[in-house]
Design brief:
alpha+beta, Thrombin, subunit H, 1 helix
Amino acid sequence: MERRWTDRAPIYLDVGLFSQGKEISVCKTRDIGLGGVFLECTQPLLPKEALVELIFMLDSGAQRIKHKIRAKVARLTEEGMGLVFRDFDATAFRSLQEVLRHKESAETPH
């Protein structure tokens, strides 16, 4: 049974997965919330408890904005990895809000 302190919304974005400053893979998010994210990856790339940095690239008009959020691998499945956000400061919170807003604006008819 999963234990989360926040809800997650289905969001499908490409995200760069970094460990110790090196890019490990580009994965796709399956769901995301204020507490964490699930990344769909073809194989478990890192062990449980590994510390990582996620890089989200979001389009904002004519520019792409990079959002970095630190996380820890909480669980591994055949589909990918569940991550818990860590060292959650105001900058990370604003970045996460931008990621969630990006999803909402993509769903709004233009």
